[in-house]
Amino acid sequence: MCGARHADQAICVFATSDGEIAPAEKLIEDFRDHQLVSSAAFALSVHNSPSGVYSVAAQSTQPTTTITGANAIAAGWLEAVLTACAEPDRSVLLAI
C-alpha cells in the first residue's frame, strides 16, 4: 500500500495488546539513570505512534484507528470489519 496513489490508500486499523511498551520502558530507564528523556523518544512511546509513522511514510491522510489492550486483537478485527462494512468501496488495512 505504501506505493499506492493517495486516493487508493487504505483506511488503517492498528491493534496492539501491549502498546509501545519497549519505548516507554526505555524512557523510564533514561529518566532513572540520567534524569533526562528524549522528546523524540517520548513522541514514539504512545500507543498510536505506529499509525502516525505509517501515515507519514505512506504520505497518507486517510483515517486510522489504533486499539490497544488485552482484547485488542479481537477488537482490531471487529473494527476492521465494521469499517469495511461502513466503507464498502474502500480498502481497509489491519496491522496487528
Describe the model:
- The chain is of the alpha/beta class.
- Helix content is 45%, strand content 16%.
- It contains 4 helices and 3 strands; from the N terminus they run βαααβαβ.
- It has helices at 21-34, 39-43, 49-57, 72-86; strands spanning 11-16, 64-68, 92-95.
- Strands 2-1-3 form a 3-stranded parallel sheet, sandwiched between helices.
- The longest helix is centred in the C-terminal third of the chain and has 15 residues, at 72-86.
- Residues 1-7 have low confidence and may be disordered.
Output the number of helix runs.
4
Question: Structural class of the helices, strands and pairings?
Answer: alpha/beta
Order of helices and strands: EHHHEHE
Distance between the termini: 16 Å
- Which word captures the global form? elongated
Strand content: 15-25%
Major beta-sheet overview: 3 strands, parallel
The amount of helix comes to: 40-55%
Radius of gyration: 16 Å
Tell me the total number of β-strands: 3
Low-confidence runs (pLDDT<50, min 5 residues)?
Answer: 1-7
Average residue-wise pLDDT:
84
Walk across the major sheet and give the strand order.
2-1-3
Keywords:
96 residues, 16% strand, 3-stranded parallel beta sheet, 45% helix, alpha/beta
At a glance:
It is built from four helices and three strands.
What's the SSE blueprint?
Layout: E1 11-16, H1 21-34, H2 39-43, H3 49-57, E2 64-68, H4 72-86, E3 92-95
